Amino acid sequence: MKCLEPGVLDCSDYYFSTPSGIAKKLFFYGICCGEFSCKVPYHVNRDSYNSYLLIQILDGSLTIKLPGEKRYETAEQGDLIWINCYQHHEYYTKRDVRFRFIHFDGNTSGDFYREILHSCGTILRPADIGPYDEAFRRLVFHYRKEKILTESEISLLLHTLLGLPFQMSGSTADSGQDRQMIQQILDYIKEHYREDLDVKTLAGTVNLSIFYFSRMFKKETGYSPYEYLMHYRLDRAKRLLKNTAMTIREVGFTTGFKSESNFVSCFHKNEGMSPGKFRKLPF
């Protein structure tokens, strides 16, 4: 379908899609998808449109108002833009631009958007655009009816696009070095999880500040250092509960908890049951 908005060139196309009831209940789903070539005075200034929006800049640039600010930032070729269209949003071009876009919603779209905004910002500049480009092209081909996808396949592609920022932020070299450091920490935790560890001790093993270490650890693992340590201890405790005759108290102290009550409380908070009940569960 051609777009008649000011500044949108005739070679542009976009398509609407109404998701099924099952898709609305279970999946990520597309609402509107297309590829635009635009020139001045292309300008979108909307109060709201019930969706989240992902834009991939193919050529040129697009300027966007940052959420909650009066400041604007410009995305260039190879960049991606994440927009919460449930809130007021604005973007426009100062020169020719070509971009793909998809309005989407469903499942945990809002949670993904908030995490991406917190971790990466509104504009993402990936070191490798290839995985994004492949998923985006397949979605556009579907809406153009060039290659039909099922709603579950569309959901998987959208999930890929939403998950990639957490895998690919930062430069490849830096990411490799960070991952090496984090693996060193994970090995250290494996050997010393029974001891009285804290974030300062863990950061010190790789000579990093607590702040930088915590941020890097979260980026690479998805957990804070404290969360990872507690979950590691719980995983070890589960093995002991199922495979030994140790008492609950012994299991707690053996896996690094300071007291039986602390162990039982942490176990119940994470598993929704007591260690004793877990021990009796058949597997």
Automatic annotation (TrEMBL):
Protein name: AraC family transcriptional regulator
Matching InterPro entries: AraC-bd, Homeodomain-like_sf, HTH-like, HTH_AraC
Signal peptide residues on this chain, from the entry's feature table: none
Pfam (any one): AraC_binding
Native organism: Diplocloster modestus
Top-level taxon: Bacteria
Span of domain HTH araC/xylS-type: 183-281
Record's keyword terms, sorted: DNA-binding, Transcription, Transcription regulation
